[in-house]
Amino acid sequence: MPKNRGQGGVSSDVKKDESYTGQLKQFAVDSQRFMDKCEKPNKDEYMKILTACSIGFVVMGLIGYFIKLIFIPINNIILGTNGATT
């Protein structure tokens, strides 16, 4: 008598698909709930965020500039590139 080998795999695949679609539906419901709770920032909150980001950009730029400013002469000393190539 032949054994039914394919039936177990089909039902487990269907369960996996149902589980996957259930997870997607739950994610969509959770996402919609999150978006319903969100609100736009008012002008004061927006200005605080804008100020903090601007200060961060300036500080990171200054740090990068000073690191570059310090390491250019050090690199020239180490490599000995002073312009005399004869």
Q: Notable features of this structure?
A:
2 helices, mainly alpha, protein transport, 80% helix, elongated, transport, Prot_translocase_SecE_dom_sf, protein transmembrane transporter activity, 86 residues
What is shown here, in short?
The chain is an all-alpha fold and 86 residues long. It contains two helices and no strands.
Tell me the count of domains.
2
Unreliable stretches covering 5 or more consecutive residues:
none
By secondary-structure content and strand pairing, the structural class works out as mainly alpha
Oligomer classification: single chain
* Relative strand content: under 5%
Largest sheet: none
Number of helices: 2
> Which value, in Å, is the CA radius of gyration?
31 Å
The average pLDDT is 83
General shape: elongated
Span between termini: 93 Å
* Topology pattern, helix = H, strand = E: HH
Helix-residue proportion: over 70%
Number of strands: 0
Keywords: Endoplasmic reticulum, Membrane, Protein transport, Translocation, Transmembrane, Transmembrane helix, Transport
Main location: endoplasmic reticulum
Subcellular location: Endoplasmic reticulum membrane
Transmembrane segments: 49-71
